[in-house]
Amino acid sequence: METNRTIEIKELIAKDLLSIGAVFLRPDEPFTWASGILSPIYCDNRLTLTAPSVRNDVENAIAETVKREFPEAEVLMGTSTAGIAHAAIAAHILGMPMGYVRSGNKDHGRQNRIEGKLEAGQKVVVIEDLISTAGSAIEVVDALREVGAEVLGIVSIFTYGMQKGLDRLAEANVRNISLSDFDTIVRIAADTGYIEAADKERLLAFRANPSDQSWISRK
């Protein structure tokens, strides 16, 4: 059950992401994903790094969430590349060590995939910027588990809340806590006039089933 504080964070981060275009909603002019699926939403949470006030909100919220949800955490591990800066800043706030996980092993030197000191048995929280289908995040979790780390969970900035992602996380026994989510973004966007109130249903229909493009004609 969500507390008043977690709801407050979700709304704050939603407003922040909308204000800088890190999450951009355009139901009447959809974006095209690499898969060919048309989407009313575009996400680029890297923009939070170049907006100091938003960055401050995000990193403090990540640190607070780690302390609240994963108090036993010993190390933060960022996903490569989008999660690295967030893991570093949050770890600095918390006074914790951090590292990051590459998408694959280096082809030179020690051929590391995990950068930073990590010992078997250490309790790790993964820091990710975006959860959609959760495939890349779970690959990071698997890499950490393979070297003996105990992965407590993931803290991400934003999640679509798509069923495929939820199912994958459940199958991998991974707990994800996102600072904000699709439904909150849509609600805030409608409440503030960023989108038309009538577009809420269309956007939520997309989230429920991205492959079904009937939401495009629902006007």
Main sheet specs:
6 strands, mixed
- Proportion of helical residues: 25-40%
Low-confidence stretches: none
Determine the number of helices (DSSP H or I, runs of at least 4 residues): 7
Outline, from the CA principal axes? Answer: globular
Q: Report the order of strands and helices.
A: HEEEEHEHEEEHEHEHH
Structural class: alpha/beta
Strands in their spatial order, largest beta sheet: 7-6-5-8-9-10
Q: What is the percentage of strand-forming residues? A: 15-25%
The residue-averaged pLDDT reads 93
Task: Specify Rg, calculated over alpha carbons.
Answer: 18 Å
Number of strands: 10
The span between the termini is 34 Å
Question: Can you give a write-up of this model?
Answer:
The strands form 3 sheets. The chain has a 6-stranded mixed β-sheet. Strands 1-4 form a two-stranded antiparallel sheet. The protein has helices at residues 4-19, 52-69, 84-94, 135-146, 163-171, 182-191, 199-208; strands at residues 23-25, 31-32, 38-39, 41-43, 75-79, 98-101, 114-115, 123-131, 150-159, 176-181. Helix 2 packs across helix 3. Helix content is 39%, strand content 21%. It has 219 residues and is α/β, with parallel strands linked by helices.
Compile the SSE list and pairings.
Layout: H1 4-19, E1 23-25, E2 31-32, E3 38-39, E4 41-43, H2 52-69, E5 75-79, H3 84-94, E6 98-101, E7 114-115, E8 123-131, H4 135-146, E9 150-159, H5 163-171, E10 176-181, H6 182-191, H7 199-208
Parallel strand pairs: 5-6, 5-8, 8-9, 9-10
Antiparallel strand pairs: 1-4, 2-3, 6-7
